[in-house]
Every structure is written in C-alpha cells, then in structure tokens.
Amino acid sequence: MTFMSLLWLDEDQLKGMLPSAPPDCFHDLCLDQVMATVAGADPDLVSVFCNPPHEIETVVYRQEMFRDLERGDIAACGREFMLALRRSRTLADNARWSGNIWASRRWNLDAARVYAAALKSLHDTLTKTEPSSRAMKNLIDWLATTLASTRYQRLVREGDEIVEALNRVSYMIRIGEGVFTVLPSDHGPDYGRRIEATFARFRQNDIQPLTFDYEEDVIFTNVAGKVLDFVAALNPEIFGKLDQYGREFGDFECKTVRRLDYELRFVMAWLDVIGSLKTSGLSFCYPLLSESHQEERVTNAFDIALALELATKKAGPVVSNGFLLQGPERMLLVTGPNQGGKTTFARMVGQLHYLAKLERFH
C-alpha cells in the first residue's frame, strides 16, 4: 500500500470529507469545547475533528498509528518534523515579503533546503524507531521513494551548489557624497587588512574573536536592494542559476507533505490533551468495534469536556461511570435527583460514540 494519509485508507475517503462546519450535536455534547482545545481555530484540524471515518477498518488503521505515536521516540520524530516544516514555511513567507527579487530567491532557496533536510531527517529517524503501524511503515516507504526521486535529488544538489557559489561571492562598496558604487572585491585595497597590520605591533596576547548575532531584515530597504541588484549584475552566472532555481522550485512543498503536517498536528494535539488528563488519574483506551456484535460494554468513562474544564480550574476529581447493553437491549434509561449527573452521563454516552470513530474511548 502506498502512503497517502495517516488518517485515511484511500483517496475516496479523503474526497468524501465535508466542509468543517461542526455537526449539530456538538453543542449539546460539548464536543465544540473539546474541539476548541484540540484544534483551536486551525481549519485543517477542525476539518479532521468534524469528519470521523465510518468504516471500522479505517478506525483500526488510526488506532495502530496512534499507538505508534504514543511511543516517545516516534512522537519525537513527528514533532521535530513539524518544527522543521514550520521553519521552512517561515523562510518561504520571508521570500514573499522581502520586496527584492534576489532576496526573495535566496529566502526561497533556504526554505527549500530546510524542507529537503526535514524529509530526509524524518525518513532516517523514523526508520530507526521501527514502527509497527501500517501508516508509519507506508510513510517510510513513501519518504524513501521521494528521497530517491530525480526532483528531490536536484532540489538538494543544485541548492547546495548555488549556496557554495554564493558564499564565494565578494564585493566592495565605494561610498561618496550622495552616491555609492558596487565593485568586485579586487578593485581596491583591503582596508581591513591594513588596519590589522597597523595595530599588530600593539598586540600582547592571543585574543578571542569578537562575534555577535544580528537579526536579518526580511524587507529590504531601497539602498540595500540596490546594492544586491548591483551584486547580481556583477555575478550574472550564479544569480542566473539562483533565479532559475526559484522559478523551478518556487512551490516545493507537495500536497502529501501538507496533509502529513496537519494530520500530525491533529494527532499530537489530541495526544497532548489525553496526556494532560491521564496525569489527573483518568484512563483512556482504544475501543473494540464490531459490525456484527451489538453489545456495548463501557467502564470508567467520563464527560471529557467536563474533565477538561475541571483540570483547567484544578477543581477536583472527575466521577467515572459505565454501562452495559447486551442481547436485545438498545436503550439506556437514566434516573436520579436534580443535579445528580444525568445530563453529564448522557453527554458522556454521546461523546463515546463520536470519539470512538476518531480513534479512542475515554
């Protein structure tokens, strides 16, 4: 099986995803609150939360993947990949905002190289963890195929060659009254070396080099942009290659990686929520689903929206409940005094049936 998604088994299921408007039941079940905690306002994560699968085999596929990502080493691979992809997208955003074609091309080059390195790192680290789920194994195979592709090889090789050539570019600026001239670095004396030689006789001991970091401006000023334009004119061959690279690899991130990113963000956010509730003593499990057996057996379940609220307020323990429907039984009749927990119990039952399709019971 080729990799397409961490959450879906085939393309038809993906195409069947509906717009991300929450179902009508969300407000009554307080699942809108749970969704806000897991997905925030991210439309991709909201879409995943609002479109659970309807096939048991897809639920099992997700359960396998969640079990893998509950392992710290595999989760670390996913988190590092998401961070690297975020860095790549920040650089790509810089390219769109720089205001200078050459600065934009260089930002894009750096973004593409970070992206390529992220794919390779994910493949190498994930392979070492030896995951057991179909989703992760298929992902490793897809990454291996991608890394061996001609496009990826060119993305890396040509990018490295251009960076090496750009690092060798040097120039000098001659500044006059209201005017400046950009020249090749060999068109004049090296005043830095002259100053160093003049003060060499006063040197007493070896000194540590003085270095400092500075924040590079994303948006170029008019003068800085003109300097870069003149440098490009002095080095047409390498800047021509940079321009061609930007034209060919301007949109380097494929749709499979985009989907992988938001699916990983959804899974990791969901696991973070579960982890926080586990520290409060609450338990979670992977539901056993069947198309032929009608029995429902639930133990130690709770209203997850209420649990999240109480955990935020540190307001005390959550009461767990259970129920059993077997044989011809299809209905639960809940009785009790006012404020006795009937509505909370009913919400819990509804939440269980919805979240079981996402991947797990609580």
Q: What structural class do you assign from the helix and strand content?
A: mainly alpha
With strands numbered from the N-terminus, the spatial order across the biggest sheet is 1-2
Spell out the helices and strands N to C. Answer: HHHHHHHHHEEHHHHEHEH
**Fraction in beta strands:** 5-15%
Give the overall form: elongated
Oligomer: single chain
- Estimated radius of gyration: 29 Å
The tally of strands reads 4
The average pLDDT value, as a whole number, equals 90
Number of domains: 3
* Low-confidence region ranges: none
The total of helices stands at: 15
Major β-sheet annotation: 2 strands, antiparallel
* Helicity level: 55-70%
Span between termini: 31 Å
Description:
59% of the residues lie in helices and 6% in strands. The protein has 15 helices and 4 strands. It has helices at residues 11-15, 25-29, 31-39, 43-50, 56-69, 72-97, 101-129, 134-147, 150-167, 191-199, 222-234, 236-248, 255-278, 304-313, 342-358, and strands at 171-176, 179-184, 296-301, 321-325. The strands form 2 sheets. Strands 1-2 form a two-stranded antiparallel ribbon. Strands 3-4 form a two-stranded antiparallel ribbon. It is elongated. The mean pLDDT is 90.
Summarize this, please?
With 362 residues, the protein is mainly α.
Write the layout of secondary structure elements.
Elements: H1 11-15, H2 25-29, H3 31-39, H4 43-50, H5 56-69, H6 72-97, H7 101-129, H8 134-147, H9 150-167, E1 171-176, E2 179-184, H10 191-199, H11 222-234, H12 236-248, H13 255-278, E3 296-301, H14 304-313, E4 321-325, H15 342-358
Antiparallel strand pairs: 1-2, 3-4
Helix pairs in contact: 3-4, 4-13, 6-7, 6-13, 7-8, 7-9, 7-12, 9-12
